[in-house]
Amino acid sequence: MADLTPTLAVGYEARPATADDMAAMGVLEPKAKELVHCAFDAAASHLYVPGLKLHMRNALRHGATTEEIMEVLEIAGVIGIHTATVAAPILAEELAAAESA
């Protein structure tokens, strides 16, 4: 993997000192990286509010628009829908079992 992503291997050996240092690494533009971080931090399976605030602020600083951030949040929100689609049938099953008991 280090052959395909040398910056990843370097990143594990020497962590960037600041968010700006990290933004300067690799081929993605800083704004794109910050939007990806927003998606991770907003995901229901991760939800990390301090990180989300930081990366939203950084994304705006790198030129992201409100609409771009909202679209990222909409995409990240789909993860929560999966939870509901899995849990709803389980709830229906348990309600049926409780009614027949």
Structural class: mainly alpha
Strand elements, count: 0
Q: Tell me the overall shape.
A: elongated
Q: Measure the end-to-end span.
A: 55 Å
The succession of helices and strands, N to C, reads: HHHHH
State the helicity in percent bands.
Answer: over 70%
Low-confidence stretches: none
Major sheet characteristics: none
Q: Over the alpha carbons, how many angstroms does the gyration radius reach?
A: 19 Å
Please work out how many helical segments DSSP would assign: 5
Q: How large is the share of residues in beta strands?
A: under 5%
Mean pLDDT: 86
Care to describe what's here?
The protein has 101 residues and is an all-alpha fold. Helix content is 74%, strand content 0%. The chain contains five helices and no strands. Helix 3 packs parallel to helix 5. The radius of gyration is 19 Å and the shape is elongated. The model has no long low-confidence stretch (mean pLDDT 86).
Brief account:
By secondary structure, this protein is an all-alpha fold. The protein is built from 5 helices and no strands.
Label this structure with key terms.
5 helices; mainly alpha
Strand-helix topology:
Blueprint: H1 6-13, H2 19-24, H3 30-42, H4 49-61, H5 66-100
